[in-house]
Design brief:
- By secondary structure, the protein is α+β, with helices and mostly antiparallel strands.
- Helix content is about 40%, strand content about 20%.
- It has helices at about 5-15, 25-30, 45-50, 60-65, 85-90, 100-115, 120-130, 145-155, 190-205, 210-220, 230-240, 285-290, 350-365; strands at about 35, 70-75, 80, 130-135, 140, 155-165, 165-170, 205-210, 240-245, 250-255, 270, 310-315, 320-330, 330-340.
- A 4-stranded antiparallel beta sheet has the order 11-12-13-14. It has a 3-stranded antiparallel beta sheet with strand order 1-3-2.
- Strand 12 (about 310-315) and strand 13 (about 320-330) form a beta hairpin.
- Helix 9 packs across helix 10 (about 210-220).
Length: about 375
């Protein structure tokens, strides 16, 4: 069967919105869940998981994190991923080498946390009083927080849990495939790199060729030691993934799947999805699929916003037809909507579906 853009769009939506399952299985199926601290009306990781985990409520991931076989770390972005995928990235070799003074500070913090056990950053800061530094935006940041983040990225620390959204750090003891391990890794570097690219493809397929290259560049921030291998890894990926050129765009997806299969049938539910949801994450693909431009405007000056501070794409069947802005005030969700063609569908099924989605959001947020 000749594969069309309609096939690719339905495939992208249906494969990502699998039947809701357990939290552990959902994270394993997704391969990676991007995190973001903004609550509008909940954090991105919670908004992503609520569509894919049965009975999910905001904050469930944070509450259950210590019991799950997952890690917080940088992948293509910062988020949560299974330990098996996390282990493929480590030992991570950062592109910059610490000066002796910073290494000495890190070793002192490491010994402090090893003796104390999991600690809140303010406890570390109170003990060492590292002061302030100038951040990337020209503002002032806590030097201890910056050091802890850097130690986490370099594999010296892990996130043991969170308290009210704040990361609680613990020492990462050396295990197979991670920092400090003395055991030989049976997988060659190229094979590990390829396995991580497969995780990316499984999460975001189908991908335009340019988006595949973009994601591979982002992945290199998670595995900087393999940056010199990027071009060869991308070439291998394009060979092993299924491929189609359609209207001048090269598309890629896992070779074991067919976008034209009848199994890819999006349901008729109306959904509000986070800007970081895998269905809408790739803005290039978004524009091709739905023929309008979606922008994330949380960091755009208010007077320049067109969609809203945290506009949630509005999905119906396999179409993103608009967006919604939701805020919680005094225990009630306040909402406003916009539509790509200027007005909502007249279909009564859409309006019933939207009300059902808003009721699901109330339940997800545990609102009356």
């Amino acid at each position: 069967m000749r594969i069309t853009l309609d096939h690719l769009r339905r495939y992208a939506v249906a494969r990502s919105l699998f039947k809701p399952t357990t939290l552990r299985k959902a994270i394993a199926k997704l391969g990676f869940v991007q995190a973001d601290p903004i609550r509008a009306p909940a954090r991105a990781q919670d908004l992503t998981l609520r569509h894919r985990v049965a009975g999910y409520h905001a904050g469930d991931l944070e509450r259950r994190y210590p019991q799950l076989p997952i890690e917080e770390d940088f992948f293509v972005n910062y988020g949560f991923l299974p330990r098996a995928h996390h282990g493929l990235m480590h030992p991570r070799v950062p592109r910059t080498k610490w000066p002796a003074s910073r290494l000495q500070k890190a070793q002192a913090v490491l010994e402090f946390i090893r003796e104390r056990g999991p600690v809140h950053p303010r406890v570390v800061d109170a003990h060492f009083a590292h002061g302030k530094i100038t951040n990337w935006f020209g503002g002032s940041s806590n030097a201890t927080t910056h050091l802890l983040d850097d130690m986490h990225y370099r594999g010296m620390l892990k996130v043991a849990r969170r308290e009210s959204g704040t990361r609680i750090y613990a020492v990462r003891e050396a295990v197979y495939g991670e920092v400090g391990s003395t055991r030989a890794d049976p997988m060659a570097e190229g094979d590990r790199f390829d396995a991580l690219i497969d995780v990316v493809m499984h999460k975001y397929a189908p991908l335009p060729g340019a988006s595949l290259g973009q994601l591979l560049s982002l992945l290199c921030r998670g595995v900087p030691q393999w940056i010199p291998q990027r071009a060869a890894a991308l070439a291998r990926a394009k060979e092993r993934f299924a491929h189609l050129r359609l209207d001048g765009v090269d598309w890629y997806w896992p070779a074991t799947e067919s976008p034209a299969s009848r199994r890819w049938r999006p349901d008729g539910n109306v959904r509000l999805v986070t800007p970081f949801d895998p269905i809408v994450w790739d803005r290039r693909r978004f524009t091709i699929f739905w023929d309008w431009v979606y922008r994330f405007e949380a960091y755009t000056p208010p007077h320049k916003r067109k969609l809203g501070y945290y506009a949630l794409p509005l999905l119906w069947h396999d179409r993103v037809i608009g967006w919604g802005n939701l805020t919680v005030k005094l225990g009630k969700v306040h909402r406003s909507f916009g539509y790509a063609n200027g007005s909502p569908p007249r279909d009564a099924a859409f309006h019933a579906g939207l009300e059902a989605e808003l009721a699901r959001i109330d339940s997800f947020l545990r609102l009356p």
